[in-house]
Amino acid sequence: MNLCDQKTVRSVMQAFGLRFRKEFGQNFLTNRAVVEDIADYCTDSAEETILEIGPGIGTLTRELCARYKNVVALEIDKSLIPALKYTLNEFHNVTVINEDVMKADLATLLAPYFEKGRVSVCANLPYYITTPILMKLLESGLPFHNITVMIQSEVADRLCSPVGGKDCGAITAVLNYYGVAERLFVVPASDFLPPPSVNSAVVRIRLHDQKPFVPRDDELFRKTIRVAFEQRRKTLPNALQAGFGNLSKEQCIAAVEAAGLRPDIRGERLSMQDFVTLSDILSDILAEAAK
């Protein structure tokens, strides 16, 4: 079955009474070479389990099933489940679950697979919810091997930007805490049905076995990053004061200077080590203020 053929896609959708649903960001890949490349690049061992988010009608799923030991596919759209049973009926190593990844208990769902070996993620993510899904995966604490996603090209630029670079955002800094992102290739809008308004790019995130930066308080560290980027035009002390309402301007300036930073610096210019140092200093200040 060639699900990269537009006629076949439309035939399957017609047979199951399906339509493309914008609210779920449904754009199906129709370039077979791209689908095969994503499946090939997502990890390096045929013995792995792949968690696929948003299988659609199973175009990428079929290629993953042909390459890897197990595939667990989470699909939010209930109407697609019968079609997936049809398009994947020849594979016995796939489990399709009708569930929203943002509500799913991934730890419980994937526990049996982690017990048997490595688990990687592969997904064509809807543009409107890319960051929340990535944050859930990264902050889940689950030992994913790789996370390979196809996302909006502009977002890919941000994910792969060096921390402190012009395209760096909060998601960039958080991602670099958990792993290293690599932009693999661009996917033009014309490779989708229906075509989106912008090009996409495939990014692979290799998660650290051991994090190179270890803050004292993981939650406070992530909040420090978020606060630093929420009001990018403000200097770092002003952003910290706005984000940590219980700290005075003087305390925020003192924290920034104690971290070896200029008080007029903006959050987007900090390195990962800067964020770790600053969050540890803020931890001390907050603990003292709570006494």
Model description:
With 291 residues, the chain is an alpha/beta fold. Helix content is 42%, strand content 16%. It has twelve helices and nine strands. The strands form two sheets. It has a seven-stranded mixed sheet. Strand 2, helix 3 (59-67) and strand 3 (70-74) form a beta-alpha-beta unit. Helix 8 (170-178) packs antiparallel against helix 9. The N and C termini lie far apart (67 Å). The mean pLDDT is 92.
Q: In a few lines, what is going on in this structure?
A:
The protein has 291 residues and is of the alpha/beta class. It contains 12 helices and 9 strands.
Terminal Cα span: 67 Å
Stretches with pLDDT under 50, minimum 5 residues: none
User: Helix segment count?
Assistant: 12
Mean pLDDT: 92
SSE pattern, N- to C-terminal: HEHEHEHEHEHEHHEEEHHHH
Classify the helix fraction into a percent range: 40-55%
Broad structural category = alpha/beta
Number of strands: 9
Largest beta sheet: what is the strand line-up? Answer: 4-3-2-5-6-9-7
- Overall geometric form: elongated
